[in-house]
Design a protein that fits this description.
63% of the residues lie in helices and 6% in strands. The chain is mainly alpha-helical. The protein has a two-stranded parallel ribbon. Helix 1 runs antiparallel to helix 2.
């Protein structure tokens, strides 16, 4: 069930990013020409909106290429946010280069700068809020991935300790399978490896 929910969450994540990106350009246009002083419109909003369609698609592609739509469990926020801003700066550099080559000099560079700053800030804030919400739910036993641990050696024990210490990952160990029961493990012993197939069918773990 959690796999289906994860797929739905990822789709909504991408769609919401696209909506925020698309709306950021008209907001940047409004800020540049109707809020900031000395705003002279040389390209109508309709031309910006046409550019906005391609720009949104290009940025979503860049975000995906930078791994920004991987599971939150596998990517730390301190690594994700710099990649988000780096992807935005890369897209801005490419856009300005394309406009220069195609003689689109009448498009406002300040509008584009406001757009990238605004969109990156909004998407960063969205990710921070999502992380905090998911962390809260996981700490209260929701949205957990159930796992079975194979083995009872030092590496298995280190993995279990890492899972128990970092609740943000959202993993819950249902038990462990090993050749013999470990004396110091505070985790259900589910038997030997010969019963692994039936355990997988019965527990249906995520990992």
């Amino acid at each position: 069930m959690i796999k289906e929910n994860q797929q739905l969450f990822n789709r909504l994540h991408v769609i919401s990013d696209g909506i925020f990106l698309f709306l950021s350009l008209p907001v940047a246009f409004w800020l540049r020409f109707y809020v900031l002083p000395n705003g002279i419109i040389t390209v109508p909003l309709s031309q910006y909106m046409l550019l906005d369609i391609f720009l949104t698609a290009a940025q979503l592609f860049t975000y995906a290429s930078f791994g920004l739509y991987q599971s939150f469990r596998k990517t730390r926020l301190k690594k994700e946010l710099p990649r988000l801003w780096l992807a935005g700066m890369l897209d801005m550099a490419i856009l300005l280069s394309v406009l220069f080559i195609n003689h689109g000099v009448h498009y406002s560079r300040l509008t584009m700068a406001i757009y990238f700053t605004l969109s990156s800030s909004i998407l960063s804030g969205k990710r921070i809020i999502l992380r905090k919400a998911l962390r809260y739910f996981r700490q209260h036993g929701h949205n957990l991935k159930h796992i079975l641990i194979l083995g009872s050696g030092e590496s298995a024990k280190a993995y279990l300790n890492a899972v128990n210490m970092d609740r943000e990952l959202g993993y819950h160990a249902d038990g462990y399978v090993a050749a013999r029961q470990a004396e110091t493990w505070d985790l259900p012993y589910l038997g030997g490896f010969e019963g692994l197939l039936s355990l997988l069918e019965g527990y249906r773990p995520d990992e």
